[in-house]
Amino acid sequence: MKANLAITPRNLGSLRLPGYCPRCMKYILNLKFHAPFDHFGAAIFGDAQKSQEAVLGYFIERDGCLPKEFSPFCDCTARANFPRHWSTFSYVHDSGVTLYGAPDEIFERKDGTLCVVDLKTAHCKGNKDPFHKQYECQVVGYAAIAEGLGLGEVTLGGLMYWEAQVGEVQEDPGGHYKGGKLCIPFTPKTVEIKIDYKILDPAIKEFKRVWNAKILPEGRPGCDDCKKLDLLFAIDEEFQLHDRRIFDAIQDSPRHRHALISSDFDRRQRRRNALIDIARLGDDMFSHDGLVANWEFVQYAEPDSVTALNNQVSRAE
To answer: Tag placement on the chain: N or C end, fewer CB within 10 Å?
Structure first.
């Protein structure tokens, strides 16, 4: 996997969004899609998906089909046998890019073909969902992998939204809390996705262009992420400038100057090591505890820089 240019269909789909920015994508590609300061990882969504899968499996096993409210997926008769882990559910696209991932559901249909479904615990906005083009690429990308692995022909794809009916709970809270359990009803709504593999080509072409770019691409005008990134760099430069000012102000304290030099060296060395680690380890550089990123920070609080530096040096001695 590491030897090939690889991407998940979901991440590939992000290049199709209106807010796509080449500059941000170049950074995120080199970070292996581990965005800094992004700590989203609510387990409740995983629990919800397992519950949804259990309901679908119940009807498939009991009736050999899904109820009418799951149309157009009612002719799905069984779960297909496919590799369940992202490392094995992968295939090299004609472009040379490896597509890999972990689809939520692949069903067998009555006619012997396959149906790829992705589950969403969210309110359905249909084609007006701002992430619809990404989800569309996700489903079609999984279908491409399934066919590439020889699992069969995929003739149907779609999204299955599960909408929490919070209003019902608010109207009758007592009726939804019984025996020490809060029961929130979820209503399924479906959106069919046409299996058109041509939609992958422009996204893959752009992905390769950005990945192979020798210089940083221009950002999208007005990109908020670019503004945050520039601000992050500017804040870091301000801290470095602050250190240099202190360095110039303490000419008579070799001990303090040495501490500043060591601190600056350590910071730069960590950055060099980080580049080496990301090239050598890839995704294994980061933790896998359910968070998108897991970065550790030293709390910074010093009303008086020179006093704080003096305390730091004293503790080291």
So the answer is: C
